[in-house]
Amino acid sequence: MAEIIEEQVESEFSGNITQRLLAYVKPYVKQMVISAILVLFITGFELIRPVLIGNAIDVYIEGYNTPYGITDESDLLFQGQYLTKDLEGCQTFAQLVMAEDQYYYFMNLSKAESDELYELTMEEIIPDKIDDHTILIHGLQGNKLTSEELSTLRRNDFYGILRIGVLYIIVLLLNLICSYAQTMILQLTGQNIIYTIREQLFHHVHSLPLRYFDTHPVGRIITRITNDVEGLHEMYATILIRLFKNSVKILGLAIVMLSINLKLALYSFAMLPLIAMLTYIFKTLSRKVHRLVRTKISMLNTFLSENISGMRLIQIFANEKMKFDEFFEKSKDLYRTNIRQLTIFAIFRPSIYFLSQIALAIVLYTSARSVLDGSITLGIMYVFINYISNFFEPIQDLAEQFSTLQNAYASAEKIFTVLDEKNTIEEKEKPVKLGKIKGKIEFKHVFFAYENDDYVLKDVSFVIQPGEKVAFVGATGAGKSSILNLIGRYYDIQKGQILIDDVDIKELSIQEIREAIGQVQQDVFIFTGDIAGNIRLQNEEISDEKIKECAKTVNASHFIEQLPNQYHELVSERGSTLSSGQRQLLSFARTLAFDPKILVMDEATANIDTETEQLIQDALEKLMEGRTTIMVAHRLSTIQHADNIIVMHKGKIREMGTHQELLQQNGIYKKLYELQLYSV
Fold it and tell me: Cβ contacts of residue 543 below 8 Å, gap of 6+?
């Protein structure tokens, strides 16, 4: 059932994902263009390397049988004659022939004799006569060469191989430089984009109303900001350019192969239909399983967030085994889904490799026959074998990158679903500016429901004058805390009006409203950091002197100054090293430091021991001076001196007056008072 709910929540986004993802690239178009150009260079370098080796094989290694022209002057002097590979204008020729693993040199040949010997070198040579020093082929005599003579004769071939080797190293170095530059540009661009998305997402989450957090687990929101955003990083930093690079590489290889030898190229492409079909199946299956993996991760994070936060309760009720079993099932479910994903990859990669090897075998067989019949050279065969080995690698990468891209799209769907969440608490473009807030609060026939028409407040009306101290009492669920939430406009009402200083709060700036209200809640949240940081809440305008003054006013300095590092004492998340009373005192100091005009206290003394309560009551008298104060309390002893007490019952105001006036009415308040009085 949880999976169905998760799927429903995550499938709400229906916009153009590609368009929105590319919008983040617009500020970095220059970097992406540079990366694309570098990719073209890198691809060119990768394509030219096999050609260099093929030329080295054909021209210099296997090119020993190329005739030499005898000329008047050249850089190669052998046996008293100047030799050149440039045959234009030459009348006399020399030829190197290999027979029975030995090299023989024929000199002073005519053009016809040279051509005849060259043709013979393309096949297995059967000499007419051979001895230790000479060989006779078709009436032409050649002399056996020593290793030193052979080295002298083939000196230019050696230098040619050396030149190609140097050129090959230069190409490798250029490839390395371009790859480094391209990787750095893309990684920096990707990191900047991800930083922007993460910042935008976090800022947007902060702007959402509390209603959103009532219906969305914290673990899921954390997953969106962390895991899902990181899921986009690889797309921006790697996938987009790799898709482009592999596409260019496949196209480049295909064009070069077709231009070198059409027949071999067509044989090389024989397996493409099967590979295309396999790739389509893989892409479809991997997309589904990727989405399922993201959903399972989100569910597991939600479970962990909830249970780690509630660890105290789990241990109190000795519920560890049951929660472990739940975690085990969810973790196992994710494990099984990951295994499904790995299985798909484990089948796909070997299948592509198998088909590529079949294509390689076809090319190897066909090219070998062509080399033997002299229709292609050994160098061309090498180039084709190298290209066919590289041709299927980018195809395989493309399929896997499409799969990763689908994973990024799945993450993007979830991220954009959060970003598209509308803030139901709309603010005017040009809100009314109150300036200095006096603190008058008025409810006019207010109706409010958290869900649909299930109203928790029904036709509530009251007025709180500036500086007045008003308390709300009533049974649990009567609507007291809801009134406090509505004053700060954390929720919007369905009917009626709420006014501050005679202006509807919907006409005011939300920031101005909340800056004017200081809230002290029953459950005080302490952030990881030090005592001073938890009082100023990163507002650097609040000086250390003011922090100490506020702490002293609310009597928090009593315990703070006893700490080893006093105001710089480190505290952990939720303030587990502090007692509930100490946390509440910090909350008072925090509220006072921001100097609000309206003070709101929701069961502020509910968890406080008697000694601490006396300290707080003493501080409250100073804290409430000159401020409109609204209190919600179950302990009626803490509100007896309020200017007005409003009794709530089932979402409606039932009684209103001072402590003594309400006791005389002999109604709900008196019953609550007597119940607490006699239970003590």
Answer: none
Which tokens hold the place of 622?
Answer: 């100073």
Distance in angstroms (rounded) separating the CA atoms of residues 469 and 553: 19
Question: Which CATH superfamily groups domain 441-679?
Answer: P-loop containing nucleotide triphosphate hydrolases (3.40.50.300)
Residue 168: burial class (beta carbons within 10 Å; 0-12, 13-18, 19+): middle
The candidate with the shortest Cα–Cα distance to 669, out of 652, 650, 656, is 656
SS3 of 492-540 = CCCEEEEEECCEEHHHECHHHHHHHEEEEECCCCCCCEEHHHHHHCCCC
Q: Which residues, at least 6 apart from 392, have a Cβ–Cβ distance to it below 8 Å?
A: 271, 275, 352, 353, 355, 356, 359
pTM recorded for the entire structure: 0.66
* Averaged pLDDT, 329-346: 83
Cβ-count burial of 304 within 10 angstroms (0-12 exposed, 13-18 middle, 19+ buried)?
middle
Note whether 460 and 446 are within 8 A (CB): yes
Work out the number of other CB atoms within 10 angstroms of the CB of residue 196.
13
CATH architecture assignment, domain 2-57+160-419: Up-down Bundle (1.20)
How many CB atoms lie under 10 A from the CB of residue 243?
18
Write down the domain spans for the chain.
2-57+160-419, 67-148, 441-679
Confidence grade of residue 167 (pLDDT, cut at 50, 70, 90): very high
SS3 621: helix
pLDDT per residue over 206-249, tens digit each? 778 777 777 777 777 777 777 778 777 777 777 777 777 788 88
